[in-house]
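Duplicate of #3305? Posting structure anyway:
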């Protein structure tokens, strides 16, 4: 149902051009080498996790931003009426600082800050967040095309927002020397590390993997190096979800053009990749190889050398061996694998067809994944209560949502699955309407609610959209580190505040009135958004109800 667009509507729609699905220019910053922008100024190296010829992977923790903290303190010290802060406030924030603030500003801060924001210290180290840092040694590459492939990997990751695809947060580059990518930390090992799997476990893994690949193919991205090493478990938990990693060989594709570069890992290559004439169905062949290996603990095609292996794959003949392993595996599972390992790619299952195969529908059913009634009730209530908020707060919540850990949002992820009935990583209006139809909304009301949550322009609710909307509506109080991280992202020139020029990096001026956005968050009227102003955005009615003394 069409309706007239308001400025607020245009703001939400315009976010699409900025966010570009999950990773943005702001929270995936690629900046030239400057001393203040050195990755080690922002992150602390804890230990080396992996070492290879062309790259290393480190375990890192974000450093506390002393520069921003001092600027924030200074903003408060400039307030006119010197009322001394309470001892509990000093203890939580300034560690015996004697900073003072004005009464007009203190009211909101008293209500929301002492309990909401605690800057991480020795007493709450368990809440600190850890990341993986991939350090690529650019100086070891003789071919600029390989460096371009690395840039392509970053570019592809910027466009992906799916619960089963690894997240990237920031990049730092030392031109011609090193490229650093700050990524989500995955601690559960790759698929080989836990094999073999039961049929039930294999179905769960393949259900998640096919969801991720369907999402990628819907966005015209082919991975081209799917294998067991490139699918990781999030955590060491036995029921941990998986994440697809390593997009260095990925590419954009179109239905009218075949790909010709022979890339990937041989044991998972399709016959048509070997012949250099292939489409996105090369990925689904690789998924068939993975499904076979999950159960058999070996690939379906094995050769003594690369040439022999490629010859066996080109012929495409395989069998379900050894018999002792496969005799108890269902016919549906074997059919699923056989249709993915179909030699004729025109007859092979597409990713979406595989996602809807009987085996996954039975062994990885939506009903079996349904969270508790309480989780669904809270999720539905929060989405019903969702209202548009100030644009800068929306951006902040989106940044926070994109960086939330599995532990923080596990219930919300399960709820997302229930809305995403097609299991393709996004929620269309029909799916949204089906879940909320029980609440007797009119068609126009549901459409308006749906459009208020879709930050993007293609009329789907993606994973981070969903989480950000829930964080905006529940009694959610981000801790100091999460807000500081979001503030740091928006303060892209490290000035210590958010300015009009900062917002111009993120927002399309054709869709946004940037001066108005800045003014609505500039509570003290100094023409910029300080960290104190930023905190006031979260001092809404829900915060008052929770923290009022």
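Output from current build:
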């Amino acid at each position: 149902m069409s309706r007239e667009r308001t400025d607020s509507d245009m703001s939400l729609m315009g976010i699409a051009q900025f966010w570009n699905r999950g990773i943005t220019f702001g929270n995936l910053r690629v900046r030239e080498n400057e001393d203040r922008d050195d990755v080690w100024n922002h992150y602390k190296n804890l230990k080396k996790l992996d070492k290879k010829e062309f790259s290393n992977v480190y375990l890192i923790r974000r450093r506390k931003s002393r520069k921003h903290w001092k600027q924030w303190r200074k903003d408060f010290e400039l307030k006119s009426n010197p009322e001394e802060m309470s001892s509990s406030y000093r203890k939580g924030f300034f560690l015996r600082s004697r900073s003072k603030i004005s009464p007009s500003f203190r009211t909101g801060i008293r209500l929301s800050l002492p309990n909401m924001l605690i800057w991480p210290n020795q007493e709450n180290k368990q809440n600190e967040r850890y990341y993986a840092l991939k350090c690529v040694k650019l100086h070891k590459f003789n071919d600029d095309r390989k460096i371009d492939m690395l840039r392509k990997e970053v570019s592809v990751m910027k466009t992906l927002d799916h619960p089963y695809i690894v997240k990237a947060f920031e990049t730092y580059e030392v031109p011609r020397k090193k490229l650093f990518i700050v990524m989500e930390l995955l601690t559960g090992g790759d698929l080989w590390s836990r094999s073999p799997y039961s049929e039930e476990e294999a179905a769960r893994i393949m259900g998640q993997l096919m969801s991720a690949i369907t999402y990628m193919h819907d966005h015209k991205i082919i991975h081209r190096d799917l294998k067991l090493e490139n699918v990781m478990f999030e955590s060491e938990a036995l029921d941990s979800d998986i994440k697809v990693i390593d997009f260095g060989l990925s590419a954009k594709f179109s239905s009218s053009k075949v790909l010709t570069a022979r890339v990937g890992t041989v044991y998972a290559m399709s016959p048509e990749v070997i012949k250099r004439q292939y489409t996105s169905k090369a990925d689904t062949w690789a998924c068939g190889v993975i499904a076979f290996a999950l159960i058999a603990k070996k690939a379906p095609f094995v050769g003594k050398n690369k040439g022999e292996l490629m010859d066996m794959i080109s012929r495409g003949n395989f069998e379900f061996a050894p018999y002792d392993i496969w005799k108890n595996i269902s016919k549906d599972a074997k059919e699923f694998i056989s249709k993915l390992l179909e030699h004729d790619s025109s007859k092979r299952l597409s990713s979406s067809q595989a996602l809807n195969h009987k085996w996954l529908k039975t062994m990885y059913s939506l009903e079996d994944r349904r969270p508790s009634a309480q989780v669904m009730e809270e999720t539905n209530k929060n989405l019903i209560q969702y209202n548009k908020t100030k644009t800068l707060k929306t951006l902040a919540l989106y940044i926070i949502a994109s960086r939330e850990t599995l532990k923080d949002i596990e219930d919300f992820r399960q709820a997302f699955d229930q809305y995403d009935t097609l299991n393709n990583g996004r929620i269309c209006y029909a799916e949204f309407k089906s879940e909320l139809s029980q609440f007797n909304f009119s068609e126009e009301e549901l459409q308006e609610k749906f459009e208020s949550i879709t930050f993007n322009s293609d009329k789907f609710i993606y994973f981070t959209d969903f989480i950000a909307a829930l964080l905006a509506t529940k009694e959610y109080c981000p801790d100091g580190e999460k807000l500081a991280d979001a503030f740091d992202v928006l303060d892209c020139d490290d000035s210590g505040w958010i300015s009009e020029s900062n917002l111009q990096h993120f927002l399309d001026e054709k869709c946004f009135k940037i001066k108005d956005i800045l003014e609505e968050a500039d509570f003290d009227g100094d023409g910029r958004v300080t960290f104190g102003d930023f905190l006031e955005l979260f001092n809404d009615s829900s915060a008052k109800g929770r923290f009022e003394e």
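Confirmed duplicate; merging threads. Confidence is low (pLDDT under 50) at residues 1-36, 75-124, 541-549. DSSP finds 25 helices and 13 strands in the chain.
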